[in-house]
């Protein structure tokens, strides 16, 4: 680029964007045609891994391990149900991107008003930042545990991961996918190794995959948690809104001929295979985390469910369940592997969180920033509450510090309950629609039924869990007054969420009607032109 061109067109930090989703990587990965199944699957493999990262991020860890500690294998059925719902939703998200050539944020914005688009953008940004807080805490604790870096400094060091991201943007999207897959394998192997050493009760484990009435019961309460609270925690940490936006964008990285329906069908098919395989890995990791809570540690032995407590417990022979684990734990290898997996999880989430932030900013408000700038802004905002938490508890006991960080991480996830319905419902409406997807690619009858059950069920469970989530801001043992206040706040928020959902659905319905009328007008114009040509 010439100096004269740069002077006339200076590079701006924030630019207008209304082109293809993630334009720099859109349609850049070549895929084979007419080749074997495995070769074609390999070419489409990658986007599913970036999505799967969100299902095994640090926010999942304590909910699954604590659920295992408190209720043995009872809640493993919840992990199975959550994973199956995730597979269904991610399939729809990838299909939307491939068929419509729009990501979910672009599709919502195209069918709704500018005002609603801004509201939904802010809501989704808050959800991403909430997820980022969990990643900051996980990465900072991993740095502290591995290298003994003071927590405040470790939190600040997490900001420097923007340099890692800057490097990754230079090496190409296919290599980024490969790095993410490698980090996922690191996490998987660490937990497979630790659980294999613990020799879990396979009969009880397999029995746990069958849900019972006890799974969603409100009693008994163990260590301040009931089965329904544990189930809601696992569901809330598993299905997250940003994954739907991300998948609808990165599914478009493959270069296909959109004028050829068979080409589009192949892309949908192999993207579904990729997604389901990678989410199966995430499912296994989450199951392993719960099994760790049951089999690696003695029942009820982990008094501190934070990452600090789990790290300490993996090197403490009094908390471990058998002689083999105790012998290996004395070397420190179990706790070090745990911290390495935690760091890998945080770095993986850095990559996907930044890409998702760009997708929603471009889609909802048509603004674009360089990825490094985008990451720097969101990470600095996310770091602030973590630093405040660390500094406020600096004079407390280590246990109190750990509990404060764990509470902050868990409470930050409350924003996910707000944002999730506003990604799931539009996604289901778009992919159910013949107008949007055409006869060939709209959801089949059984996908529609399962989709509505999943969306309404998850929305209902998230809203049901809102009072407890808000009560969590008052600590582990809120007073009766604080509980009543939490219930009142929850009712107000639920009414606001339902009102905003009604506005979104109405706008989408009207937008779909306008688009249908536009398509009919275009068809009539083509028919009239054809008649004139014949005459």
Describe the protein's architecture and organization:
This protein is an all-alpha fold. The chain has one domain (16-398): Hydantoin permease, CATH 1.10.4160. Helices cover 74% and strands 1% of the residues. The chain has 25 helices and 2 strands. It has a two-stranded antiparallel ribbon with strand order 1-2. α7 crosses α8. It is globular. The protein starts with a helix and ends with a helix. The model is unreliable at 5-10 (pLDDT under 50). InterPro entries: NRAMP_fam (IPR001046). One of its GO terms (cellular component) is plasma membrane.
Question: Could you give a short description of this structure?
Answer:
The protein has a single domain, classed as Hydantoin permease (Orthogonal Bundle). Helix content is 74%, strand content 1%. The chain has helices at 3-8, 37-44, 47-52, 58-71, 76-100, 104-111, 114-147, 151-157, 161-168, 173-198, 202-208, 227-238, 241-250, 261-296, 307-313, 323-329, 333-365, 371-392, 398-412, 414-419, 421-432, 434-441, 445-464, 466-471, 480-534, and strands at 15-16, 367-368.
Helix content bin: over 70%
Q: How many structural units, i.e. domains?
A: 1
CATH-wise, what's the superfamily? Hydantoin permease
Over all CA atoms, what is the radius of gyration? 24 Å
What's the overall geometry?
A: globular
CATH topology: Hydantoin permease
In N-to-C order, the SSE pattern is HEHHHHHHHHHHHHHHHHEHHHHHHHH
InterPro entries: NRAMP_fam
Subcellular location: Membrane
GO biological process, one term: iron ion transmembrane transport
Keywords: Membrane, Transmembrane, Transmembrane helix, Transport
């Amino acid at each position: 680029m010439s100096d004269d061109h740069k002077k006339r067109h200076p590079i701006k930090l924030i630019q207008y964007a209304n082109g293809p989703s993630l334009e720099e990587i859109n349609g850049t990965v070549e895929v084979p045609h007419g080749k074997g199944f495995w070769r074609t699957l390999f070419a489409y493999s990658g986007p599913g891994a970036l999505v799967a990262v969100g299902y095994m991020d640090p926010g999942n860890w304590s909910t699954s391990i604590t659920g295992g500690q408190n209720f043995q294998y009872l809640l493993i059925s919840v992990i199975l149900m959550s994973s199956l719902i995730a597979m269904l939703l991610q399939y729809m998200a990838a299909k939307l991107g491939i068929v419509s050539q729009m990501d979910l944020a672009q599709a919502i914005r195209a069918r709704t008003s500018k005002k609603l688009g801004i509201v939904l953008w802010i809501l989704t940004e808050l959800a991403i930042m909430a997820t980022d807080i969990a990643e900051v805490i996980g990465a900072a604790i991993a740095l502290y545990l591995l290298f003994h870096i003071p927590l405040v400094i470790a939190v600040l060091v997490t900001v420097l991961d923007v340099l890692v991201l800057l490097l990754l943007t230079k090496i190409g999207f296919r290599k980024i996918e490969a790095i993410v897959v490698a980090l996922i394998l690191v996490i998987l192997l660490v937990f497979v190794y630790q659980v294999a050493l613990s020799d879990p009760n396979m009969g009880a484990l397999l029995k746990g995959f069958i849900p019972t009435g006890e799974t969603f019961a409100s009693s008994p309460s163990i260590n301040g948690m009931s089965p329904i609270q544990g189930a809601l925690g696992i569901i809330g940490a598993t299905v997250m809104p940003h994954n739907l936006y991300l998948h609808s964008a990165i599914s478009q990285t493959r270069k296909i001929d959109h004028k050829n329906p068979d080409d589009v069908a192949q892309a949908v098919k192999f993207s579904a295979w990729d997604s389901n395989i990678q989410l199966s890995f995430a499912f296994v990791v989450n199951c392993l985390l719960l099994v760790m809570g049951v089999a690696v540690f003695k029942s009820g032995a982990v008094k501190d469910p934070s990452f600090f407590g789990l790290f300490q417990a993996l090197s403490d022979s009094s908390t471990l369940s058998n002689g083999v684990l105790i012998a290996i734990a004395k070397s420190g290898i179990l706790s070090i592997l745990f911290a390495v997996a935690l760091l890998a999880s945080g770095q993986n989430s850095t990559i996907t969180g930044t890409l998702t932030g760009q997708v929603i900013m471009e889609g909802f408000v048509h603004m674009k920033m360089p990825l490094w700038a985008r990451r720097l802004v969101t990470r600095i905002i996310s770091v602030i509450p973590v630093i405040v938490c660390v500094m406020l508890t600096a004079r407390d006991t280590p246990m109190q510090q750990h509990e404060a960080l764990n509470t902050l991480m868990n409470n930050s996830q409350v924003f996910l309950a707000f944002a999730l319905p506003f990604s799931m419902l539009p996604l289901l409406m778009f992919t159910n629609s013949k107008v949007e997807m055409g006869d060939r690619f709209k959801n089949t009858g059984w996908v529609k039924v399962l989709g509505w059950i999943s969306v309404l069920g998850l929305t209902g469970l998230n809203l049901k869990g809102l009072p407890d989530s808000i009560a969590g801001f008052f600590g582990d043992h809120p007073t009766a007054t604080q509980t009543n206040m939490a219930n009142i706040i929850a009712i107000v928020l639920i009414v606001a969420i339902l009102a905003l959902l009604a506005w979104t659905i109405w706008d989408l319905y009207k937008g779909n009607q306008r688009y249908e009328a536009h398509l009919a007008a275009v068809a009539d114009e083509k028919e009239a032109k054809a008649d004139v040509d014949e005459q």
